[in-house]
Amino acid sequence: MDAELSRRLNRLLDHVEHWLPPAPQEVDWERDVAALWQRHVLGGQLLPVPPRDALSLDDLLGIERQKLALVDNTRAFLQGLPANHALLWGSRGSGKSSLIRALLNSLAEEGLRLVQVDRHDLAGLPMLVEQLRRQPHRFVVYCDDLSFEGHDDAYKALKSVLDGALTGPPENVLLYATSNRRHLLPESLSDNADTRLVGEELHHGDAVEEKISLSDRFGLWLGFYPFNQDIYLEACCHWVTQLGSERDWNAEARAEAIRYATLRGGRSGRGAWQFASQWVGQRRLHET
Question: Fewest C-beta in 10 Å: which of 28, 106, 125, 131?
């Protein structure tokens, strides 16, 4: 390369350099406890992220059985004992995603590291798992609000990593997923067309078996259900007290919490948080 061409290339790079994105920050697993996986960037990279909030397990009410099961499963994994991949499924706003966040906040000091994968990046899941295999830490790979449409093949990568590839997932990686669907895939009436009765046994057709086979790879199923009114009001009281003070929870607040849930058509932990945010925020606004 002659001097003139080299000079012109350097000038060109000087002009476009400020348009280039900054170099991605490397994940330091001694310091960072969570990261996002992005498959489409340079074949796949991990971006460190700080914990979203200080949510604790004690903040989550009405899901005691689910908390205990997931904490025990995760602690066994962190101690090198046998543990299962986990599917948290059920009604919206019932605490599935919040439980994962609280789990990280509670167990990060015990060695838990979390990697979140978007559903659209699941095709790169085998690549991610191979990267984590070489790390000395123990990871939960987490996919939030996981579901697939009938024409979506991304679930095949998930099936393969869970329990289908020759190598399988490494011993330092577990997969946790949350979903509103128990079987993750849409179920239609036509799927049952091939279901038949053999003697006294019900045999599903291939379409149903294919859909069940994905969720069946998760060894731990945890169901989440709508709150009854007592649990909902207990959660409202908790969050109103947390965001404000004990004096903010009174008979008026209780009546408004019931009205809030009625207008929304359901009771949930998310609804309790949203009510508390509205109630405390408006009271403080009018006090000033």
Answer: 28
Q: How many other CB atoms are found less than 10 A from the CB of residue 97?
A: 16
Q: pLDDT, tens digit, for every residue of 155-200? A: 666 766 676 555 567 899 999 989 877 766 655 545 555 555 556 5
Q: Is 272 helix (H, G, I), strand (E, B) or coil?
A: helix
83 neighbors 116 (Cβ within 8 angstroms): no
Direct distance between the N- and C-terminal alpha carbons of the chain, in angstroms, rounded to an integer? 70
Listed residue (177, 171, 214) closest to 82, CA to CA:
171
DSSP string covering 83-120, please? Answer: ---EEEEESTTSSHHHHHHHHHHHHGGGTEEEEEE-GG
In sequence order, what are the beta bridge partners of 202? 197
The per-residue DSSP string of 113-143 comes to EEEEE-GGGGGGHHHHHHHHHTSSSEEEEEE
pLDDT digits (tens, 9 = 90+) for 266-282: 999 999 999 999 999 99
